[in-house]
Amino acid sequence: MVWKYKIDLEDKSVFSEIEQSRGIEIPEDLKQLVIDENAATPEKYCFMVGNNERVFGAVLSFNKADDDTVFVALDVVKDKNLFPFGIDPFGNYICLNLKSEEVVFWDHETDRIESTGNKLKQFIESLY
Q1: Where are the beta strands (DSSP E) in 3-126?
Q2: pTM flag (> 0.90)
Q3: What is the pLDDT of residues 24-45, one digit of tens each?
Q4: Can you name the residues that pair with 3 across neighbouring β-strands?
Q5: Phi and psi dihedrals of 26, rounded to 5?
Q6: pLDDT (tens digit, 9 = 90+) per residue, 78-113?
Q7: Domains recognised in the chain with CATH numbers
Q8: Are 64 and 9 in contact (CB under 8 A)?
Q9: How far apart are the C-alpha atoms of 97 and 32, rounded to whole Å?
Q10: How far is CA 78 from CA 33, 38, 72, in A?
Q11: What distance in Å separates the CA atoms of residue 108 and residue 87, rounded to the nearest whole number?
């Protein structure tokens, strides 16, 4: 997968800060995605949720001073079982369900959650 517009992660301790403040554990594969592709846009960006085609706009930035950060997303997505890691062009979030480890699409207007049916690695590989 080719990614564009990456912004280097400033501090890896951000993961433990978030884990402690939210009382969660961020999976290692998600941490690695952020380390490798913080704030980047995938070259292949479409994915399916049911019969609907969706767009993966970018990985959320884990740098506090950047635009479209995970910190804003964590304030918006109240369900602590959902961990937002991506955003689409319309303000919806792509999240990891921390219980099932499936990637889900979270609609910001309705709070509706739809599963992609894929784990993180499968989800990234399925982008087209």
Answers
A1: 3-4, 41-42, 46-49, 52-55, 58-59, 82-87, 93-97, 102-106, 113-119
A2: yes
A3: 999 999 999 999 999 999 999 9
A4: 42
A5: -85, 125
A6: 999 999 999 999 999 999 999 999 999 999 999 999
A7: 3-126 (3.40.1580.10)
A8: no
A9: 17
A10: 23, 22, 11
A11: 10
